[in-house]
Amino acid sequence: MFHLAKGLYTNWNRKEQYSILILGLDNAGKTTFLETLKKEFTNASKPLEKITPTVGQNVATIPVENCNLKLWDVGGQEALRSLWAEYYLQAHGIVFVIDSSDRSRLDECCNALQNVVMDDDVEGIPVLMLANKQDREDRMEVQDIKEVFNKIAEHLGARDSRVLPISALNGQGVREAAEWLIVRLKRNKDNKPPQYK
Ligand SMILES: Nc1nc2c(ncn2[C@@H]2O[C@H](COP(=O)(O)OP(=O)(O)OP(=O)(O)O)[C@@H](O)[C@H]2O)c(=O)[nH]1
Ligand SMILES: [Mg+2]
C-alpha cells in the first residue's frame, strides 16, 4: 500500500513525457520545424539560417501544455533512413515532414512514409503528416497533398492521422501541429503510456 501511494504521489508530481520521432526526406524541413517549435514554446532556439543537413540526430525536450514532448529529429538522407527503425519502439508519435514544393520527389516521399507506417513497431501510434513550406509560391495545393498522403494513411487502421499545412520557416501552423499531437498522444495513453519525468 505504501509503495502504491508513493508511486501515485511520485507520478502526480511529475510531468507526462512523450517521445516524438520527426521523419521525412532530406531537405523536407525537419530540423527547421524542431527549431521553430522550440522558439514557439521555449523562446530558445538556434538561428534557422545556421541549420545544416542532419547527419546524426537532434533532440529537444519542449513543454507543451501540461506535458513534455521529447522530440527526436533524425537525418533524412537515403543512406541514413535505415537508422530510423532504431527509434520506432520508443516513439509515442510520428511527425512526417513533406516538402510541399518538391513535386519531383513525391513518390520517394510516399514510399518512405509507407515503409514507416507498415512497420509493426509503430503500430497504433498517431502519425501527423506536415505539408511544409506553405510559404513558397511553387507549393503543391494542400488538398492534392492530402489526397496522396491520406491514401497511405488509410492503411493505418484505427490509429489517428492527419495532414496539416505548415511553414516551419515562418511558424505558420507549428503551434497547431503540437496541439494536435498532444490531444492524440493523450488519447492513445492506454495503448502507449507516457514516461513520467
Ligand atoms: N521556404 C521554406 N523553406 C524551408 C521551410 N522549412 C525548411 N526550409 C528550408 O529547407 C532546407 C532544409 O531544411 P532542414 O530543416 O535542414 O531539412 P531537414 O529535413 O532537417 O533535412 P535533413 O537534415 O538533411 O534530413 C533549408 O534551406 C530550410 O531553410 C519552410 O517552411 N519554407
Ligand atoms: Mg535536419
TrEMBL record:
SUPFAM superfamilies xrefs: P-loop containing nucleoside triphosphate hydrolases
CDD domains: Arfrp1 (cd04160)
Keywords: GTP-binding, Magnesium, Metal-binding, Nucleotide-binding
Protein residues bound to Mg(2+): 31, 54
Gene Ontology biological-process entries: Golgi to plasma membrane protein transport; intracellular protein transport; protein localization to Golgi apparatus
Highest taxon above the source species: Eukaryota
Claim: Nucleotide-binding is one of the keywords in the record: yes
The keyword GTP-binding appears for this protein: yes
UniProt-listed Pfam families: Arf
Family annotation (PANTHER family): ADP-RIBOSYLATION FACTOR-RELATED PROTEIN 1
Name of the protein in its database record: LAMI_0E12310g1_1
